[in-house]
């Protein structure tokens, strides 16, 4: 692999039914942040794990980014009973990200997990999720506001405290930082081997890292991709991820 070529980063697709077809797609906000701020080339991976060996992708990329989504990890994956409060689901996405997360960590591929991706990371480590957290006593409403303008929906909403001495602190500084918030689920039981890197005022786990990871491995509940070109901490996260991907590419040779 030439070190002059930009790294490739695998981005798992969501599955959507639209205009009589089944689409495998990813929002361009993540793709633009990867290209413009991390300096890498995003490669959308179709959620079709039964159709190909994931090694065909992971042998050729230098990082993985798992995106947010309005869909939720199926509760059966963490021992919870499905109900309407856990919907909508995207089981093909679940299957793909489960494989991407496990394999990327095994290989030491840099991993950035955002929102749903952060929740998938927790489940991959045996953790659990809680749903409709705004209904719990003492919890904030972390859901997106209803607004036609995405810039309003992704406006920063609350502060998060940064865990001193952790990976996130090394990237964004001691904090606190202000983040946006577009989720109704959150980490309940923290997965074994994950470290809390940031917390909301109501105790919601807002960022995690993988203890002893071979490379960059960070999950964030908020959306740094949306303001990655203008917001300092958001840009720092994507720049650090891009640097880790370049390091992986160079080591791969
Ligand atoms: N569905 C999960 C994860 C939330 C998430 O990834 N949100 C991304 C943006 C979705 C939108 O545009 O509304 C949860 O709700 O916790």
Automatic annotation (TrEMBL):
Catalytic reaction equation(s): 4-(gamma-L-glutamylamino)butanoate + H2O = 4-aminobutanoate + L-glutamate
Entry annotated with the keyword Glycoprotein: no
Enzyme class (EC, first level): hydrolase
One GO term of the biological process aspect: polyamine catabolic process
Single Gene Ontology MF annotation: gamma-glutamyl-gamma-aminobutyrate hydrolase activity
EC number: 3.5.1.94
PROSITE patterns: GATASE_TYPE_1
CDD domains attached to this UniProt entry: GATase1_2 (cd01745)
TM segment ranges: none
Gene Ontology cellular component list: cytosol
Protein role: Involved in the breakdown of putrescine via hydrolysis of the gamma-glutamyl linkage of gamma-glutamyl-gamma-aminobutyrate.
Name the record gives this protein: gamma-glutamyl-gamma-aminobutyrate hydrolase
Species assigned in the record: Jiella pacifica
